[in-house]
Amino acid sequence: MPATTVRPLTPDDACAYRALRLQGIAELPAAFCTTHAAESAVPLAQIAERLRTTPHQIMFGAFAGPQLLAIAGLRREPIAVLHDKASLWGIYVAPPARGQGTGRQLVQAAITHACAVPELALLRLAVAHDNHAALKLYLRCGFTLASEQARLDMLQMQFLLPRPAQAGVADAKNNVFMKINTLQILAK
User: Fold this and answer.
1) Which of 31, 58, 95, 106 makes the best surface tag, with the fewest CB within 10 Å?
2) Strand partners, 54
3) Where residue 65 sits, what CATH number does that domain have?
């Protein structure tokens, strides 16, 4: 097998992406938040748009030569309250690429991209509790189990992004605290 390369997907990758995603849904339906029938009905133009990189989403693909072997998406919320969080989603590694570090390369590419976005502080993902290979991969990449568990059949995981200490942040927090205290005193 040729060396694996990881890169952002583009709308030109729509056919290969669709084929691999449908393969993943057929093999591991519980791992995806859709059905094979629903995903098959999505027009190719809509899939191509899904692959267009924006400030809020990017899709990565792992290739051996021209062959797409693995996919992973990174999406962050555009609303201010959640803009410091992103979700890793739609991860699938085709059987021939498993056990060769392809999944790790893909997850690392998403983490590296997230680290370059100053607003992001946390990556999240959900993994089926019985998907032991994926769970081991995420743990090896530095994800930990989150304290909240939304569904019994899915484990919620998180990755705190490393951020350099910023001078003046503590002072800014203290100023906010002082303003809040001042407002409380004035309200009394």
Assistant:
1) 95
2) 57
3) 3.40.630.30
Complete edge-to-edge strand list for the sheet that includes strand 4-8:
4-8, 57-64, 67-76, 85-93, 122-128, 154-160, 144-145
Say how many domains are in the chain: 1
Supply the range of the domain harboring residue 119.
4-187
Integer distance in angstroms from the first to the last C-alpha of the chain? 72
DSSP assignment, residue 31?
G
> What average pLDDT score do residues 71-79 get?
89
pLDDT band at 164 (very low <50, low <70, confident <90, very high): low
Would you place residue 151 in the very low, low, confident or very high pLDDT band (cuts 50, 70, 90)? low
Q: Which long-range CB contacts under 8 A does 77-84 form with residues at least 24 apart?
A: 83/119, 84/119, 84/120, 84/121, 84/122
Lowest mean pLDDT among 8-22, 44-58, 79-93: 79-93
Q: Work out the angle at residue 126's Cα, subtended by the Cα atoms of residues 59 and 16, and round it to the nearest 5 degrees.
A: 30
Query: Which of 62, 74, 158 has its CA nearest to residue 102?
Result: 62
